[in-house]
Amino acid sequence: MNDRGPSTARALHAPLRMTGLRWSAIRELSMPWDVRLEDEQGRPLIPSDVYVEFSMIPEDESLAATKILRIIDRYADTVLNHLQMDDFLREWSQLQPNPMDHIEWELVRRMAEQCKAEPHTYLRFIGD
Q1: How deeply is 31 buried, as exposed, middle or buried, from its count of CB atoms within 10 A (0-12, 13-18, 19+)?
Q2: Domain range summary for the chain, segments of one domain joined by +
């Protein structure tokens, strides 16, 4: 008998049952966007993507008042260009990131500044 039998599977999922959370809810809480600065051919302009948790952009009534943040799709790619960066940067600066997410927030802000300054660059949010 292998060590991943029914009793092992039950033990692995027990914490989920005890908390009452569904796996899909936990997965959604932990899913990040990959955020990438790229050129017009889709080639990355920096060595690695920045991972931004979905929770950094809260889905509440304040999101409806935004022009750019509300169109960023969690499940598909969203590409922004230099003409959208003024609105994006204004809205991004109004977010209140968790202290643990501040470095990622700052890296995205810097990528957006570079996108704004350089035509033919794009800020891509890669959804789930």
Answers
A1: middle
A2: 1-30, 31-126
